[in-house]
Write a structure and sequence with these properties.
The protein is about 85% helix and about 0% strand. It is globular. The protein contains 15 helices and no strands. The chain is mainly alpha-helical and about 450 residues long. Helix 3 crosses helix 8.
């Protein structure tokens, strides 16, 4: 019982800190957009796009291994293995960081686009390395029981520092003097402080986990094998989830357009919050029903997942449609062009929510991880190509339209795969019955579905 209460307490702490971090993150980007010119803010947005896409490759999926194995090691008195995992992760980051540094100093760096100087690429690299280190440390702390510093240092401290540094620059009248690297410089300084603080906390925490009598070198191969199994899928999902869009827009249309599109992404991201939360709850419920052999109830849970995720997405989208003009004004007078892309992106979330989350959960619980990885990799390649083609032809409308097409197309693809590989879980009749049950019995049925 005590362990259950401890787990629930840690989960609630993580949820609260994540919500606070999301609010601070949105506020920090809003302040940067208001203080700095679109091109300056766009350089920071472009860097964030690079981090979101490339970070998983820099760490070669090690955060996934840490989150999978570290809790068990700590619980079984082998917490010292977390130290070994961290050393492996940092060695991987050193190797991939070195490779990226060489590439950025070579003629291959021009593939990113002639809009960026070597100094720009150096700033991208430095921010990527710092953010990757913070991400790995955050996962290690959270997975080994230190949820508050784990989530707080990565998701709360960094945006809070961005707000503080930006406010200081404005108060001192130095924001204009920071020039082209104002926004990315403030983000980099905040990430550097977060990285140092994270290293200090991690060092103290690792000393409490004990010292090994001997180190089993074979563990490194186990962790690498596990992380490699997921890195391609995670890298593909980063592209599918619009993280590469800012890079495409910045490279093809310029940093000012990247800033506008990034504002649209920030607003459209609000549409994903409720559907993602609902999916997280219902995925575990569905998995537990399947594991316990309760077939009929698992089918009902799958259909409930479609109905509730869709409802959450639609309600969120309507809310964003209503408040997005106000939110765009808060970002400043330079971003009226963000409204149309934000509406399209939100619509794409709704289209994808009707099909994709439930089908993805069913395939994952059904053991079809390899199929999911291959499907996501293929869809990511199509998404990137389509984004480039439509952005060249139609500008920001094209980028957002590509996102909608990919979202809906991915949902249909996963639904067909689910119907073929894990049949019987989702049917039209089952979804209709779920709609009648949830609407007919109101709050009681909703509580039962989420329980």
């Amino acid at each position: 019982m005590a362990a259950g209460h401890s787990t629930a307490r840690r989960l609630s702490t993580a949820v609260i800190l994540s919500a606070v971090g999301a609010a601070l993150g949105f506020s920090s980007q809003l302040i940067l957009a208001r203080v700095f010119a679109p091109d300056v803010f766009g350089l920071n947005a472009f860097a964030i796009g690079i981090i979101n896409v490339v970070q998983v490759w820099c760490l070669w999926g090690m955060p996934t291994s840490v989150s999978r194995f570290a809790p068990g090691y700590v619980a079984n008195g082998r917490g010292y293995l977390v130290r070994d995992m961290m050393w492996l992760g940092f060695r991987i980051l050193a190797v991939t960081g070195g490779v990226l540094a060489v590439v950025m100093l070579s003629p291959a760096s021009r593939l990113v686009g002639s809009r960026f100087s070597q100094a720009d690429l150096g700033a991208f690299w430095l921010l990527l390395m710092l953010a990757s280190a913070v991400s790995l440390i955050s996962v290690a702390l959270s997975a080994s029981g230190r949820v508050t510093p784990g989530v707080g240092l990565a998701q709360v401290l960094r945006p809070a520092l961005v707000i503080a540094f930006c406010g200081t620059a404005v108060i001192l009248g130095q924001s204009d003097r920071l020039g082209r690297y104002g926004a990315i410089g403030i983000s980099g300084a905040a990430t550097l402080v977060s990285a140092v603080a994270s290293l200090v906390v991690l060092g103290r925490h690792l000393r409490t986990l004990g010292r090994p009598a001997s180190i089993d070198a074979s563990m490194s191969s186990l962790w690498l094998k596990f992380s490699t199994a997921f890195v391609f899928s995670e890298g593909a999902v980063a592209i599918i989830s619009n993280q590469s869009d800012t890079i495409v827009v910045g490279s093809l249309l310029g940093l000012g357009s990247a800033a506008v599109y990034y504002v649209a992404l920030q607003i459209a991201a609000a549409v994903t919050l409720a559907p993602t939360a609902v999916q997280s709850i219902l995925h575990f419920r569905y998995a537990s029903l399947v594991d316990s052999g309760r077939t009929d109830e698992s089918k009902n849970a799958a259909c409930d997942m479609v109905v509730l995720i869709t409802a959450a997405a639609v309600v969120s989208w309507v809310g964003v449609l209503i408040v997005s003009p106000l939110l765009i004004k808060l970002f400043g007078h330079n971003y009226p062009g963000a409204y149309a892309p934000s509406v399209l992106l939100g619509g794409g979330v709704v289209g994808a929510a009707i099909l994709c989350p439930a089908a993805s959960s069913i395939l994952a619980v059904g053991g079809q991880h390899r199929v999911l990885a291959i499907a996501n990799a293929c869809i990511a390649a199509v998404a990137l190509a389509l984004s480039i083609v439509l952005t060249r032809r139609f500008g920001l409308w094209g980028t957002a339209s590509a996102s909608v097409i990919v979202g809906v197309g991915r949902g249909l693809t996963l639904l067909m795969l689910q119907h073929r590989l894990v049949p019987g879980q989702l049917t039209v009749g089952g979804v209709q019955a779920s709609m009648r049950r949830l609407s007919g019995h109101g709050v009681g049925a909703l509580r039962s579905a989420l329980r």
